[in-house]
């Protein structure tokens, strides 16, 4: 009996040891805390548009980084008030150590919060303010807009092209100008008329703005908006459209020509991995077509010769042989703003407040 007792006791001890070992392993696995990363979006991620493109980038990062990261996402956060403050505070309370936010209007709030929370990393899309724990990131979308302008300029029959624009900030003005330069590089007689909506996301208002341009004889509609409203208006009228943010040819197949599009996945993955590796630094980013962060969607319903011209200019942009804002460039009043042989600096591009020749419209005070 005594021998059996010793054997039983040994078995119990062995089992306990195995259980404790197992628990220890589980604790180690669980103890490897995931990096919590927050994403704040101006719009909704389930409709093709600006926020949708960012969400596709986040999903790409999620796939690449696997179980190293846990994401917290908040959609439809206004940038016209301090809504983002409570959202970010909530994310920090949930343990987020890294927060991305995708609207220009968030900038000042994030800048202040970066000072308040020095141990949290802030990444702001499209702004201009930075700190040791806050950077700005964006892409040279004007490169793809120039290419889309080539397509529009070759497609128009009325030489009247409409542009539905959001807010009169340098980013939007820069895009309108690049698009117009692309249009007039192949069609000097064409003009681009701008209508402002003073909103990023309002499908009905954006559609109405496009309709007002179609009523004036515009047969191609371009946009800097977050919805497909302008594109739908063009299709319903039997005209053409240039999209934005992502390829929406499946939504407006009869009207779609192309679209300047975003590819945020590699950048998001890289930045998060740097935090995981302990190598992250506050370094502002403004990448171009050579990085793949901006591109042009495949051409549909395009005029003859457009693909060849786009390919030619895209290669020159990527190689650096051609700069979109190289002189000579005149403003809409005919004054030379960029002399021949010079190229606008990044500082000038980031503070754009005038229209190039060929644009019809004014820049209001936002």
UniProtKB/TrEMBL annotation:
The keyword Signal applies. Pfam families: Bmp. The keyword Signal applies. Residues 35-324 form the ABC transporter substrate-binding protein PnrA-like domain. GO terms for cellular component: plasma membrane. Residues 1-26 form the signal peptide. This is ABC transporter substrate-binding protein PnrA-like domain-containing protein. InterPro entries: ABC-Purine-Binding, PnrA-like. Keywords: Signal. It comes from the Bacteria. PANTHER family: ABC TRANSPORTER SUBSTRATE-BINDING PROTEIN.
């Amino acid at each position: 009996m005594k021998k059996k007792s010793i054997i039983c006791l040994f078995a119990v001890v062995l089992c306990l040891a195995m259980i404790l070992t197992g628990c220890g392993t589980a604790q180690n696995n669980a103890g490897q805390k995931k990096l919590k990363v927050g994403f704040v979006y101006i719009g909704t991620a389930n409709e093709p548009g600006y926020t949708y493109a960012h969400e596709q980038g986040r999903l790409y990062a999620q796939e690449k980084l696997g179980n190293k990261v846990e994401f917290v996402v908040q959609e439809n956060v206004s940038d016209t008030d301090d809504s983002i403050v409570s959202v970010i505070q909530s994310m920090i309370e949930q343990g987020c150590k890294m927060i991305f936010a995708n609207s220009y209007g968030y900038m000042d709030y994030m800048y202040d919060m970066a000072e308040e929370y020095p141990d949290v990393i802030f990444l702001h899309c499209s702004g201009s303010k930075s700190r040791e724990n806050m950077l700005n990131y964006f892409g040279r979308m004007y490169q793809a807009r120039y290419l889309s302008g080539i397509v529009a300029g070759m497609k128009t029959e009325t030489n009247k092209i409409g542009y539905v624009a959001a807010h009169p900030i340098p980013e939007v003005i820069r895009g309108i100008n690049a698009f117009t330069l692309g249009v007039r590089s192949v069609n000097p007689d064409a003009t681009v008329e701008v209508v402002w909506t003073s909103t990023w996301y309002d499908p009905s208002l954006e559609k109405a703005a496009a309709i007002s341009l179609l009523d004036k004889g515009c047969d191609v509609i371009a946009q800097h908006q977050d919805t497909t409203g302008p594109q739908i208006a063009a299709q319903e009228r039997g005209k053409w459209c240039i999209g934005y943010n992502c390829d929406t040819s499946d939504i407006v197949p009869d009207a779609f020509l192309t679209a300047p599009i975003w590819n945020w996945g590699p950048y998001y993955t890289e930045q998060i991995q740097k935090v995981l590796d302990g190598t992250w630094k506050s370094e502002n980013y403004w990448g171009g077509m050579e990085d793949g962060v901006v591109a042009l969607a495949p051409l549909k319903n395009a005029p003859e010769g457009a693909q060849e011209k786009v390919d030619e200019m895209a290669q020159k942009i990527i190689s650096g042989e051609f700069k979109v804002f190289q002189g000579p460039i005149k403003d809409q009043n005919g004054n030379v703003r960029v002399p021949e042989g010079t190229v606008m600096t990044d500082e000038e591009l980031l503070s754009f407040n005038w229209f190039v020749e060929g644009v019809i419209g004014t820049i209001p005070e936002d």
